[in-house]
Amino acid sequence: MAKFKSEDLLQALCSDVEQIRTAARYFREADKNKLIYTPSENEWSVVQILEHLNAYGRFYLPAFRKAMDEQPGQKSAWFQSGFWGDYFTKTMKPSNVYEVKNKMKAMKAYTFGNGLNVETVVREFEQQQEELLDLLRRAGSTDLGAARVPISITKMIRLKLGDALRFLVAHEQRHMIQARNTLKKVGVATDHFPVILSAGNQQAALA
Fold first, then answer.
1. How do the domains of the chain map onto residue ranges?
2. What angle do CA 152, 109, 99 make, to 5 degrees?
3. Given this model, what pLDDT does residue 203 score?
4. pLDDT tens digit string along 72-115?
5. 142-144-146 Cα angle (round to 5)
6. Nearest to 99 by CA among 182, 15, 25
7. Could you give the CA distance from residue 196 to residue 175 in angstroms, rounded to a whole number?
8. CATH superfamily of 3-200
9. Contact partners, residue 69, CB within 8 Å, separation at least 6
């Protein structure tokens, strides 16, 4: 499994989330009407994508906080990824900045209709990125391997905190690329949209 220097991993994840925060500001300033457009019957609008991410955040952010509370004052210089955590993260993480090739079907509980309030959804997404950054900074004083986090599909599987953080950020990167491509399809210029994977590609792991 992949092995990381804990400090480097958390710093890289913080850089990833900073890029996602920049994307959130892009959505805030975009034409709100375009955020509810769906390119086709089988595709989500940008606001549906963001609400999907918000739903994941509602599950994982409190779970991260609880895991850290249960491991007070502990830390480790190195983080060894677990089998399932590494597998889920690598499966979820997009391989390039242009498209998401390995399509996945979202669970019904994490899919939403298009009758969403754009301002509310975008505001929550921005707030969640702020909270995620705070948690990543706090994780520096936590043993990323000892603390455990349940996954959203079943509480029977609990990932190491380091892997759960990697997974959530990879999931957000995946859908940020989807959102950027959706904007292009509905006629919004994306020349200044942040390059979502530029920081994430620096997450070098040791074999």
1. 3-200
2. 80
3. 45
4. 777 889 999 999 999 999 999 988 777 777 778 887 888 898 88
5. 90
6. 182
7. 10
8. dinb family like domain (1.20.120.450)
9. none
- Give the length of the chain: 207
Tokens of 149: 């986090």
Q: CA separation (Å) from 55 to 63, 77, 205?
A: 13, 32, 29
With beta carbons less than 8 A apart as the criterion, state whether 166 and 23 touch: no
**Under 8 Å between Cβ of 85 and 164:** yes
* CA torsion through residues 128, 134, 137, 141, sign: negative
Distances (CA, A) of 150 to 102, 156, 163, 189: 24, 7, 11, 39
pLDDT tens digit sequence for 48-76? 999 999 999 999 999 999 999 988 777 88
Written as six digits, the tokens of 146 are 């000892």
Torsion sign across C-alpha atoms 105, 111, 117, 119: negative
Q: How many angstroms separate the CA atoms of 129 and 96, rounded?
A: 22
Backbone angles phi, psi at 27, to 5 degrees: -65, -40
Nearest-angstrom CA–CA distance, 103 and 100: 7
pLDDT of residue 206: 38
